[in-house]
Amino acid sequence: MESVLALGGFVLLRDSVEWEGRSLLKALIKKSALCGEQVHILGCEVSEDEFREGFDSSINSRLIYHDLFRDPLNWSQTGEALPGGPLGALQAMCRRTHPGPVTIALDSLSWLLLHIPCTALCQALGALSRQHAHPGGGSPAEPVRVLGLFHEELHGPGPLGALSSLAQTEVTLSGTMGQASAHILSRRPRQRPAHQTQWFSILPDFSLDLQGGPPLESQPHADPHTAPVDPTAHVTFNLHLSKKEREAKDSLTLPFQFSSEKQQALLRAGPSQATSHIFYEPDAYDDLDQEDPDDDLDV
Amino acid sequence: MAAVATCGTGAGSTGSIAAAASKNNVTSFQRKGPRASGTDSGCSRLVSIAGTRPSVRNGQLLVSTGLPALDQLLGGGLAVGTVLLIEEDKYNIYSSLVFKYFLAEGIINGHTLLVASAKEDPADILQELPAPLLDDNCKKDFDEDVCNDKTPDSNIKMKIAWRYQLLPKMESGPVSSSRFGHYYDASKRMPQELIEASKWHGFFFPEKLSSTLNIESCSLTHGYRKLLQFIQNVIYEEGFDGSSPQKKQKNILRIGIQSLGSPLWGDDICCTENCDNSHSLTKFLYVLRGLLRTSLSACIITMPTHLIQNKAVIARVTNLSDTVVGLESFIGSERETNPLYKDYHGLIHIRQIPRLNNLIYDVSDVKDLAFKLKRKLFTIEKVQKGEVNFKKKTP
Questions:
Q1: How does it assemble (chain B) (predicted)?
Q2: What is the pLDDT of residues B161-191, one digit of tens each?
């Protein structure tokens, strides 16, 4: 699980109805906050009080909460709501230039997808992860991560494919028998993507408890179909030669065999042959008697 | 069999029978057509631009794609004025590599580059280009690479087919830089001085957007329109379309567009099946092809077709491109563990080859091709089905 935070970039947390992801999101936020990073949260689906519940005060003081839940369409006109709606709020986050490592948590990408077009969201996410890789001041790249919670059952394959192609790390939540697991796919640039499955549980104070393997129930049996296929089995001809057979094969005279002298001449001459030679080797049936050319006519 | 007369005199570009008969008394047949190193033949009436050669079939001007193996499959190279569309593999590892090979080939040949991307800064893309293999020192390492793969059985001297010992090996190693296609070392970076000596234009889409991301300005044709204007400006100002005739040295413009059709360009064909501007991408390809046909340029486009939801769009895009190559990598799929594919990294599908000024095309009759990427070599081979091992198994 450390690799999820270490890699930086955009982390896509895919959850579902059976295995909810908000507690994992809060656990990751707590971990970042304990490392001393700045944490910005764009909350859309739950109220601020409910989100902050469970964190102790030291962590709560580090979290900067941008609330889109209370008044997303700015009906109350009190000026508390974020200007520009959801897209404006995202762009405001893009423009931050506070130094130091930063974590941005988007409480739910599904909610954002319902309110802004998918392409705008993808472009904003790209801008977020890029802006911190190249800050304006020219200082070396600072790790920033964008944690996005995505309820995959609410969307078709299109947005899921688009967002996962942008993500550096993709965490899919599943599990068996009450034990949650996270399948982590990390894509480092220009390297093969790495898969990892991590079993974990979240304690009441939102700290992560990583576990070794699945609970007591049986491991899935090895799939019998994955036995390696041997192409040399069940073949209708003999593939292996015994020693005697190999000797017999080697000593067989080939029907159209040149003498080795002719063979070497042909091999050596190659394309630079200027004149042509004639090689004559008498066959077993050839008659060498020059006197009588019609001897074999049997007349 | 008529032996080919030694064409070392360089008069191979014209097939004059009379001249040959007086030179050599062996044969009067001479190979017609320009030789492989057509750039140095002064008697050729074709435009001699560095890094190009005429096709041996119909004289079409070709540039190398950067992968000699792919050049062979496409009939010698990529024709100038056409589009090469690469369908990206799932994690975009090998398609970005093919993209970089194309750009690196442009730098080696001295062509002008135009790199457009919505994800990475073009300057960063150029920094990551692979280093070319130009020395003869590398030839030794290359031969070792090839020999390591040969099975011991192939070293037995052939008894029946002994005439084939004279034939040259199929894969020729890296040679000096005057050759048409070059080899690259994927583990090293291109030297900085070569990149700085080259001429390139970059188009990074997020920079061209206005600073405020309105929803209206994310309309689909916005990004494509800006890109087309940029390409048109470069072609016009640098004279690739012949608009400044006093230019003495013609050059090729190599255009590379990365991940066209992804949501970062503002196009939502990857996000929904019934999108509003489903014709935006196809219009872009149509206009781009018109620009390319009237200029000395070649274009490579990578497209994440595995994300496109509407299959009809993929068919239209294929029809609007000239050469279409699909890459399918085995990473993460069940084919990774299949022993049939254990030597390879993925499959390569040649989906379309253009018929340019021609009624037939050079379609290879081999349909199941696989590629593998070693450090210095990207090879494409026919998948060896049912590889039979004649070695005796030790009990």
A1: Component of the elongator complex which consists of ELP1, ELP2, ELP3, ELP4, ELP5 and ELP6.
A2: 777 766 655 444 444 345 688 888 888 899 9
Domain count along chain B? 1
pLDDT in tens, A256-272: 666 666 677 666 665 55
Chain A residue nearest residue B388, CA to CA = A232
Say what the pLDDT of residue A202 is.
87
Whether residue B294 is contained in a domain is answered as: yes
Domain encompassing residue B199: 60-134+179-211+221-382
pTM score, two decimals?
A: 0.76
On whether any CB of chain A is under 8 Å from the CB of B161, the answer is no
Q: What's the DSSP call for residue A255?
A: S
Q: How far is A83 from chain B (nearest CA, A)?
A: 13
Which B residues, 221 through 260, put their C-beta within 8 Å of a C-beta on chain A?
none
Residue B18 within any structural domain of the chain:
no
Q: Is residue B355 part of a domain?
A: yes
Q: At what angle do helices A118-131 and A85-94 cross, to 10 degrees?
A: 20
pLDDT(B14) > 50 = no
Q: For the domain that residue B291 is a member of, what is the CATH number?
A: 3.40.50.300
* Res B330 pLDDT > 80: yes
> Which of B175-187 are b and which e, b meaning 16 or more Cβ less than 10 Å from the residue's Cβ?
eeeebbbbbbbbe
ipTM metric: 0.74
Q: Please, what are the domains in chain A?
A: 1-193+206-213 (3.40.50.300)
